[in-house]
Amino acid sequence: MPQAKQRLREVQETLASREADIASFYATHQNWSATIARYQTVVDTYPLYSHMDDVLVGLGDAYEAEATGTRAMKARSGASKAEQEMFEAGKAHLLKIYDDEAAAAYNKLVLEHSASAHVEDAKDRLVAMGLPIPTPTPEQVAASAALENSRGQYTLSNRVEFFVLHKADTVPAATLGDPPLEDAKPTIAPDIYKKSMSDYLSSMNPAAYTPRPPAAPAPLVPSATGSSAPAPAANAAPLALQDVPAAGAVAAADSSAVSSVSEATPATASGSSVGIEIVPPSSASPAPTAAPASPPVFPGSESPAPAQSEPVNGSAQPGPNDNMGGIKPAGPPIATLTAPIEKPDAAPDAVNETTPGSQPPAQLAPADGKKPKPAFDKSDESSSKHKKKKGLAKLNPF
Description:
398 residues
C-alpha cells in the first residue's frame, strides 16, 4: 500500500507538471481564459503538487491581468453624464470581481503553503492591492512544513538518469499525504470565457442583461383522426372560395353580386394559373353592346371567320379559342409582322500585297549555309559559348 500511494503521487506530479507548463505557455500569449482554466485544474485536482506556489501566483496574476485590461477601458466619446456614471459603476463592479479572485489565490498560498519558496511574492501582491495579509494557524504551518520536508532532493545521479533516459521528473514529488483517488471536474477555457462575458454584461448593463424565459410551445389540438396538430392563430381569417363568372358570361349591370378578394387576405392561385386581381366594373358604366347575330363570311369561303374578343367595359370577353377561364391572353390583340432583320454587308476580301514566292530579306539564309554568330565586345561581355583563350592569352585576367 505505501508503494502504490507513492506511485500515485509520482503520476499526479507528472500530470500536474504538464498542466502547469501548458498554463504558463498560454500566459506568455496573454490567453487569460486558457491560463486560468489550466491553473485552476491543477489547484482542484493535484493538491500535492510540488510547485503549487507557482500555480497560485500565476492564477492570481492572470486575474490581475484581466483587471488591468478592465481599468484601461473608457466610456464612449460623447456620452452623457448619466451614461458615464453608469459606466464607471459597472467598471468598478467588474474590477471587484477580478480583484477578489486574485486575492483568493494569494490568500490560499499564504495560508496553506506558508513553507513554500514563493510565499513572499503572494504577500507582496496583497500589499500592492491594499489588502491585509492573512495569518496561518499553527496547524497549517506545521502541515505545510511537513509536506515540503518530505520532498526528495536532486542528486547528480538522478539528473544524469533523467537526461539520458528521458524519464519524468518525479524527484520533488511528496512522500506524505493521501493522494486523491478521484479527479475533480476539469475547468475548461470556454467556461471561463463565458463567465467573463456574463460578468461584463451584467456589470456594464444590468438592466439589458436579463435571462429570457424559454418560449412556450403552441398548444396541440386533437384532430378527427386522433393526431395532434398545433392550434391555429386566433387572428387568422378563415379561407373562403370566391365566385368566378363562367367563360362567355356577360356581367350584369349590378356587379355587387360578384365577390371580390379582400385586401387583408390576398388570394392565392392553385394549379398552374397565375395570381390575378378581380376588379368589378362600376355600376354606372353603360350596358354592354350585344354581339352580332352571326359572324361575317369572307368571300370565297363557306365557313365563318373566327370570333374575335370584343371589349366590354374596358375588358375583353373570351373567344371560343380561349381556354384560360375567362382571362385574356397576354400580348397585342392583333400580331403584326415586323420588318426583317437586315443582313450586314459582306466584309471586303483581304488584300495581300506580298508577291507570292518571295521572302523578306531578314529571313533569307546565308550563302554558305552557316548561321552567323552575334557580335560582342570582349571588354564588356563574356560568354561560355566562345572559344577558350590560347597561348599567352590565358594569363591575361582581363
